[in-house]
């Protein structure tokens, strides 16, 4: 027995080291690939703005932008898998996350899929990280789309307050258990879950259901491992469901998977509710026009990324200066600190990192607004951004309309929020 235990522990250790190596390696690739996607998306957005959305070239460019967005979602999955950093949380209304995730899924233009979305969570708030829960819904939604396997089908996403009703299947298991498995003898129906819903009440229930063939019962208990396919017919590898489980566990929540042979699979997540009075709701009238005339300094060691960002912002009316050799920036800024109104700086650069460059620039001009763009794990960079006192951090590949709006906000505020 002791020998078997030693063998099991050695196997677990080897597996952990293998995943750590994969994480480091894939994280580096994801960062570099984000730069490629940033340039592709940037130049495609310029074509859309120059040609118009309704022209032939404009429509083609929009498809390129959509492909870049999907590629960015893949790299985001890899980066989140490769990163085990603590994520700071806050209270927020869940409907904002639900709407954003649904919008991203629908914009991917799955011609064979009809999305049915029922958001009954308006006014309901949870504690967590908004970006992570958008990622959770995107991963579950993408998994559902692929489960349909190219056939016409429906993917249903819903969010509502969970109530205990007498006679609900597995009610006692859901309330009390940490982990449970139920299946019929013929394996046509099975259900697995982990977490205790009883610890979460009152709670919000989120479900994503597909009309696929149903997950192969032989791998149902392994679907949250990286590189495991949830489809019977073909092998698909990825980190999507592994990240879903990580997010659920980190939030102290509960998750259940129900599969019915030739009917489909439903993923359900339960999240504890917090009082809505503690949540700051978004102002729907606070939209900011992306056009402007500010002088923008763009710093990125990748020429294509810098040029595409400059081209997009110039199309919107901004005046840009692009620098691809970061050490030159400090000399330029020291000699003429008032020559630009705002800077947009890449985070990961050779010779000097974006946050170090920004910190040096703030010593010269303390209230100078600076935006950091990163292809690395967002939370780590965001925490460093707050320490330095910068304006904002945006994920690569950057949505240049979002970047332009952030420039407008910073210019209107006249100072970076972290400067006290």
| Proportion in helices | 40-55%
CATH topology of the largest domain: Heat Shock Protein 90
Mean pLDDT: 76
Any idea how many domains? 3
CATH superfamily of the largest domain: Histidine kinase-like ATPase, C-terminal domain
In the CATH classification, which architecture of the largest domain applies? 2-Layer Sandwich
**Which class of the largest domain in CATH terms?**
Alpha Beta
How much strand?
15-25%
Q: Which radius of gyration do the C-alpha atoms yield?
A: 24 Å
Q: What gap, in angstroms, lies between the N and C termini?
A: 61 Å
Oligomeric state: single chain
Based on secondary structure, the structural category is alpha/beta
Which geometry do the CA atoms define?
Answer: globular
User: What summary fits the major beta sheet?
Assistant: 9 strands, mixed
Number of DSSP strands? Answer: 14
Low-confidence stretches: 169-178, 232-238, 278-286, 414-420
Q: List the helices and strands in order.
A: HHEHEEHEHEEEHEEEHEHEHEHEH
Number of alpha- plus pi-helical segments: 11
Description:
The protein has 420 residues and is α/β, with parallel strands linked by helices. The chain has three domains: 2-82, Helix Hairpins (Orthogonal Bundle), CATH 1.10.287; 90-278, 2-Layer Sandwich (Heat Shock Protein 90), CATH 3.30.565; 295-419, Rossmann fold (3-Layer(aba) Sandwich). 44% of the residues lie in helices and 20% in strands. The chain has eleven helices and 14 strands. The strands form two sheets. Strands 1, 2, 3, 4, 5, 6, 7, 8 and 9 form a nine-stranded mixed sheet that branches. Strands 11-10-12-13-14 form a five-stranded parallel sheet, with helices on both faces. Helix 3 crosses helix 4 (130-147), helix 4 (130-147) runs antiparallel to helix 6 and helix 8 runs parallel beside helix 9. The longest helix has 50 residues, at 2-51. The model is unreliable at 169-178, 232-238, 278-286 and 414-420 (pLDDT under 50).
């Amino acid at each position: 027995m002791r020998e078997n235990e030693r063998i099991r522990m050695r196997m677990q250790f080897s597996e952990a080291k293998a995943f750590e190596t994969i994480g480091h390696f894939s994280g580096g690739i994801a960062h570099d690939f984000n730069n490629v996607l940033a340039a592709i998306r940037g130049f495609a957005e310029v074509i859309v703005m120059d040609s118009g959305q309704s022209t032939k070239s404009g429509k083609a460019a929009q498809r390129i932008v959509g492909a870049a967005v999907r590629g960015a979602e893949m790299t985001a999955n890899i980066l989140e898998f490769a990163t085990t950093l603590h994520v700071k949380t806050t209270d927020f209304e869940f409907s904002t996350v639900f709407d954003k995730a649904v919008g991203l899924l629908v914009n991917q233009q799955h011609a064979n899929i009809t999305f049915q979305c029922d958001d009954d969570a308006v006014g309901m708030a949870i504690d967590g990280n908004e970006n992570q829960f958008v990622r959770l819904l995107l991963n579950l939604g993408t998994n559902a789309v692929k489960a349909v396997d190219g056939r016409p089908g429906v993917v249903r996403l819903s969010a509502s307050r969970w109530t205990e009703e007498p006679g609900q299947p597995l009610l006692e298991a859901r309330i009390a258990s940490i982990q449970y498995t139920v299946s019929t003898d013929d394996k046509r129906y099975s259900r697995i879950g982990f977490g205790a819903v009883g610890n979460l009440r009152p709670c919000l229930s989120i479900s994503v259901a597909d009309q696929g063939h149903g997950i192969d019962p032989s791998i149902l208990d392994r679907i949250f491992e990286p590189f495991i396919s949830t489809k019977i017919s073909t092998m698909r590898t990825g980190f999507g469901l592994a990240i879903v489980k990580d997010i659920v566990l980190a939030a102290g929540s509960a998750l259940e998977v129900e599969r019915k042979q030739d009917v489909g699979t439903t993923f359900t997540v339960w999240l504890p509710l917090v009082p809505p009075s503690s949540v700051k709701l978004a102002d729907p009238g606070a939209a900011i026009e992306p056009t402007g005339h500010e002088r923008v300094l763009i710093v990125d060691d990748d020429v294509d990324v810098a040029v595409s960002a400059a081209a997009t912002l110039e199309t919107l009316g901004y005046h840009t200066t692009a620098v691809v050799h970061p050490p030159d920036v400090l000399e330029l800024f020291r000699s003429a600190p008032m020559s630009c109104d705002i800077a947009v700086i890449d985070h990961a650069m050779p010779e000097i990192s974006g946050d170090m460059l920004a910190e040096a620039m703030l010593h010269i001009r303390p209230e100078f607004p600076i935006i950091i763009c990163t292809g690395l794990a967002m939370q780590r960079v965001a925490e460093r951004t707050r320490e330095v006192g910068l304006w904002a951090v945006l994920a690569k590949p950057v949505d240049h309309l979002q970047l332009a709006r952030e420039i407008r906000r910073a210019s209107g505020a006249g100072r970076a929020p972290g400067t006290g």
